[in-house]
Amino acid sequence: MAPSGSCMKRTCQRVLHWIPVLFISVIVAWSYYAYVFQLCIESIEDMGEKVATLLAYHVIFILFTWSYMKTIFTAPMTPQKEFHLSHADREQLEREGRGEAHQEILKRLAKDLPIYTRTMSGGIRYCDRCQLLKPDRSHHCSVCDKCILKMDHHCPWVNNCVGFSNYKFFVLFLGYSVLYCMFITATDVRYFILFWTVGGSIHKNILKFVDGLPDTQAKFHIMFLFFAASMFSVSLFSLFGYHCWLVCKNRSTLEAFRAPAFRHGTDKNGFSLGLSKNIRQVFGDEKKYWLLPVFTSLGDGCSFPTCLVNQDPEQPNSASRHNPSVMSSEETHSFPARPLRDSQTHLLSDGASQNDLRGTSNPAVTIENET
């Protein structure tokens, strides 16, 4: 009975997680009906205006729904097999407990992996739940119950983790959501005003609603469509602006709240390569695909080029500048044998120093427990 009860609980949780998505889908479906049928077809009389409005609306609507579906149904990427511990290594770790030998095992396993971020105490980031060495910028999601590459956050409105595999889709979804709402607001406002002015007074329009005249249904939808679109425009614009700022700084939401830690200490700009390169890391090199919800992000999600010298005007003094010995120490160690992919290393080729292509040796290894 216990396994059956647990299975039923998980099923109920999965169903409940889809409620926010269903709510958004219902609103979008209603907005489509209200705008296309009640506003454009029923209310706009000029044929040229009607055709132009419908064409522009459907272009925005297709891009909006396309990016939303891609954000929902693109599975978040998890660490590759090389970051997982083998059965023999797990058994050896369990036998050693938490002593010095335990740390030596993890150090041996991590030495050939491109892992440069650390825990706040300076150790290798390790997930007990997934039993793997966590790649840079990855985190364990308690909702998905797995480690997600370049995790940004778990979004209930898409019932999915936003990370390396779908972050571009999420940003486009926000952008097209703002455009969708603003377009509806701009084209609906004239008819919204007419709703209150035609007929002489608000009271007369209310009487029309009660009497059920033929134009009442259209006016009802026009009014609430304007209110909904304008309210969503304000909230979505602020969220979209925030994520545009994150893209320009090459940070995730989690990294904005807690700066990633490197061997020399925490550095909120550790992954920032400059505005142009930061944008290309998310949207890719080919600008013709930037506005389309197709995957063009650079890299494999497991390793990222770093910039150990802070170039952010908000924080002019980085940890390495406070301590000159840090850079000299960094220069004595090379990255592990596994190189960055070509799509990542070429980001550093334009005027990048050799220090950006070097990493750190593994410090004393500690364990980061995540559940």
Automatic annotation (TrEMBL):
It is found in: Membrane. Residues 313-371 are annotated as: Disordered. It holds the Pfam family DHHC. Residues 124-257 form the Palmitoyltransferase DHHC domain. InterPro entries: Palmitoyltrfase_DHHC (IPR001594), PFA4/ZDH16/20/ERF2-like (IPR039859). Its EC number is 2.3.1.225. It is an enzyme of class 2 (transferase). Residues 313-329, 345-364 have a biased composition (Polar residues). It comes from the Eukaryota. GO terms for cellular component: membrane. It is a multi-pass membrane protein. GO terms for molecular function: protein-cysteine S-palmitoyltransferase activity. It catalyses: L-cysteinyl-[protein] + hexadecanoyl-CoA = S-hexadecanoyl-L-cysteinyl-[protein] + CoA. Keywords: Acyltransferase, Membrane, Transferase, Transmembrane, Transmembrane helix. Its main location: membrane. The chain crosses the membrane at residues 15-35, 55-73, 169-186, 222-242. Belongs to the DHHC palmitoyltransferase family. The DHHC domain is required for palmitoyltransferase activity. This is Palmitoyltransferase.
